[in-house]
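Table S2 (continued). Query chain:
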Amino acid sequence: MTPADDLAHQATAAPEHTDAFWMPFTANRQFKKTPRLLASAEGMYYRSTDGREILDGTGGLWCCNAGHARPRIVKAIQEQAATLDFAPTFQMGHPLPFVLAERLKAIAPDGLDHVFFTNSGSESVDTALKIALAYHRARGEGQRTRLIGREKGYHGVGFGGISVGGMVNNRKFFGAMLPGVDHLRHTLDIARNGFNRGLPKHGIELAEDLERLVQLHDASTIAAVIVEPISGSAGVVLPPEGYLKRLREICDKHGILLIFDEVITGFGRVGKAFAAQRFGVTPDLITTAKGLTNGAVPMGAVFASGKIHDAFMHGPEGAIELFHGYTYSGHPLACAAALATLDTYQEEGLFEKAIELGGYWEDAIHALKGLPNVIDIRNYGLIGAVELAAREGAPGSRGYDAFNRAFHDQNLMVRCTGDVLALSPPLILQKEHIDRIFDRLAATIRATA
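Corresponding output:
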């Protein structure tokens, strides 16, 4: 067996040993007793190491918006690896990040015309928070150091991200985190908005929490507010109608920057390039990753408004304006993958798919109402969530059992967050894929006591 043959075998066969890999966000001991292992993928499907075809209901991890193993993206990565494998972007450069930034500017909300490259959503969040703090200092308001997040928010796993985030298990193990952080209340309200189709009708008043925090801390101390337009990891929590617009108004009133974390909603997930465009609310900064390269190579990007960027462009020309960056910012392979991904999105009209299929998707997911233990259904664009009643004394166990059963018994991949089953399929799906996803999910829910 040649080295290439050996590598191919190792990549597609169940490993002999699993102990050395400490898996992220995983119950390691539980997983390693009955592993769920994926060996290959194409289009809408994964193939498991035991040869089963698994319908991808989650776009990988909210990232494979154009489906799997897309030829244009594969070819771009291969050719770039053979041309330029790495080049630094500290006081140096190579052509592709400049080309990519212009392409991204063209699809971004008006006014967000500068792009800072990172390698993940977590890095994008920490970058945006640092830019926000440094921006106020650059314009003579360095006392604005307070950051406002939201309960149930997920903003990655850096110390900045978990500080402004609002998911208890991501926070409680890691000490006091960043000082000077506060949180808005979350917008999940099943009692008033249960089984609502699309954006909730109730809850715009929750945006007034920001006014309350201004009264507590004073606006002159607050640098930025960061929210996900749609919270993913918390179990698909949607913004009430008018909520994001009201946050924008309050931020403008008090000189506070507004950051949208669009790591999951960016690149077509809700029917436009970004949720900011679908909701008609433009923030000062947008954080992205995931769908930027279709998940093929790790990459993130922060979009910044001209007013923010230009605030740094003073002083001697030879001075570094922002002391921040990553070795792999604008990595050649990632840029090549991103450019090919943007081409694929454009050629196949994938940003429009969440609008074209949104109604069919909505009807299909809400048809699950009335199944055993289903207590809420939420949807927007091509995002969906089915919340199951928690078992007494064992929260999360019913959701995990359904997730596991879907994979092993129904050849369907979904996400579980506690007792919420979340869905975010590749945007290449057709109506028949939607039918299969929800037929299999319905069978899973019925079989999960």
